[in-house]
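Researcher: Hi, I'm a grad student and pretty new to this. My advisor asked me to get structures for two proteins we've been looking at. I'm not sure of the right format, so I'll just paste the first sequence and hope you can take it from there.
Model: That works fine. Here's the first sequence with its structure tokens right after it:
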Amino acid sequence: MAEQKTITVKQIGSPIRREKSQRATLIGLGLNKMNKERELIDTPEVRGMINKVPHLVRVVGE
């Protein structure tokens, strides 16, 4: 099986005073604290979640 492509996502914004759906999206990405980073498999679902909260996360590496 070929190795899957991954991306590293870093939380740069606080979920305080944000909609519940945006908070849930951050939790779905595995982020819950400022400056926390997660390495995720690059799928359309993950890209969609990142596009939902671009003001709260930054893609650090691909």
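Researcher: Oh nice, that was easy. Here's the second one.
Model: And its structure:
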Amino acid sequence: MTLKVNTDPAESGFDANRLERIDRHFARYVDDGLLPGWQIVVGRHGNVVHSSRAGHRDVEAGLPVESGTLWRIFSMTKPVTSVAAMMLFEEGAFDLTDPIARWLPEFAEPRVYVKGSALRPATEPATEPIRVWHLLSHTSGLTYGFHHAHPVDAMYRAAGFEWGAPPGLDLAGCVAKWAELPLVFQPGSEWNYSVSTDVLGRFVEVVSGQSLDEFFRERIFTPLGMTDTSFGVDDERLGALYIPEPGTRRAVRNEAFGKVGRGRPDYWSGGGGLVSTAADYHRFTQFLLRGGELDGVRLLGPRTVALMTANHLPGDVDLEAYGRPLFAEMPFHGFGFGLGFSVLTDPVKAKTLSSKGEYAWGGAASTAFWVDPATGVTALFFTQLLPSSTHPIRQELRNLVYQALVG
């Protein structure tokens, strides 16, 4: 499947000359060696108004970025897992306020870190069960080993969870291990980017009776025509993965991280395991923009999509007020969080040209997407540079897209 511009940008309210600024700007990243290559897609009201690519998917092999290049989308997997869960919600399988221990009994008696070190933590019983909406909104109290900000993060690393999982451990095994570790805070009391969506993936498996891989393929990817999206591939179209060189920040190939996404993984990571193409993920954004339907196939009702893309942080505050000031795939100022997506609550506070109500997320290798219901604009950016905090790509892309929107 390929992506081509299928409308005159002017008919969709874009200035074609201003759209060219996008490519000129990001071409410099490649020219300066800061990115190996990239692919960008901008749409409006279902039409592709801008589609471009530059550089290489594999610099050392001289393989260029092509229309069908495969990308590790890492945490852009999370919205897919969230959609899967909400499909089951619509079938009456659970309520958002249900304790997850009903399906995942290993979480029946979670304990919460109070004080102490990673080796000798003091904990107390959770006063609130972890509920389904806590997983969807990252308010569960779970964490990530790569945060390096809390003693519980160190406990995750000691258990083998930093940028992955111990070899041979499947999703059920990972969830069982996480359930043995203390929570960072009482469920529902704060926001913390975490393995919550991986646990949600296991929840989908238990509720549906299917592996997450099967559920995605049969109930989301095949119906939406996402023919190139899966957990791991053996395909030369998959780009190499790069990290910034200390000091120069030039992109340097990293074979250890690059193994991720090649071949079948030991566990289906609903939080970051998918490989996809620009064409496939564009279809996913159009499905969201259209309120849960694409090409006559409806997977979610529009009221469900509206609920998922509303800010679920208590008091309608932003992440700066409710979240821990750690790494996430979005800024904290002016952004709240829904059920699987960041939600732009205040464009002025966020200092962005995007619209209130925009929902989005990104991946660790500097990929990103957003959907803007107010203007009908969708945008995608793909590259393979880890971590995503290396360059301000997402804010730059927002500003470059919206400066070109003139009608």
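Researcher: Is there anything I should tell my advisor about the second?
Model: You could mention this: The two ends are 30 Å apart (CA to CA).
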